Amino acid sequence: MREKKTIVRKQKAPGKGIKLKLILWGSLALLILLTAAFAPYITPHDPYEQDLGRALWAPCREYLLGTDRYGRDMLSRVIMGARTSVFSAVLLVLITTVTGSVAGTVCGYHGGKLDTFLMRVSDVFLAFPGMVFAIAAASVLKGGLFGAVAALALISWPKYARIVRSQVMAIKNAPYMEAARLAGSGTVKIIFRHMLPNIAGPVVTTAVLDMGTMMMEIAGLSFLGLGAAPPAAEWGSMMSNGRSMLQTSPWVILAPGCAIFLTVMIFNLLGDTVRDLLDPRQRKKEELPL
Fold first, then answer.
1. Whole-model pTM?
2. Looking at per-residue confidence, does 285 or 127 come out higher?
3. Domain with 239 in it: what CATH number?
């Protein structure tokens, strides 16, 4: 009787495909961040210089994306707007990631009344429609970019708190954690050396995926007049100022709109790639019966 053999074949390394995607989308995301960082030095014209004599010029050789109603170069304003829009999203993601991770770690590791209290507080925030709550909070904070970031941070931290809490509760009683305690490691050392490295994957993936979402939400609040105020170059605010000219001068709204679309798409694809790379199932060996 012929015995069945099992061939163990490695999946195409979590693979060349995933790594190439990571390099591609990571490079594009880095290019966006560098553009935002050096925006004042690479704009072809002064993004705030007004000249009504060239108001609403269509895209041409000198002004590749045209000009707005005040004669300001749209390309320069889009580049300068990257600094406000992208860095605001980065700051927001950092605030929510750190705040939510600290709360989730404390709740998951110690439990008790503090865990119950913080989870009930997070339930309250999660019970409200996110954008509606952000609009209300931004209105109370009298708008402005700081108000928009603070409002969105209030509704975003519970997601990270719950992710980290569930991960911490799953591993806090694992054998290697018990071994670390028996070896004399204190709570701080256990959390930072043994726990956080093992739960970093889901947190990093969520943070990268949230970059695009946060950018959209900041732009949405600015579009409603609750974020960056004119004449500041910010993509959502620029779209709001140009919405009345969509039919007559479409480049005024299409330029910042396309910048938002491309940036959000790149960060979302980068987040998907990071998730695939950190997924343990991508590293499993495939068994094929013969």
1. 0.84
2. 127
3. 1.10.3720.10
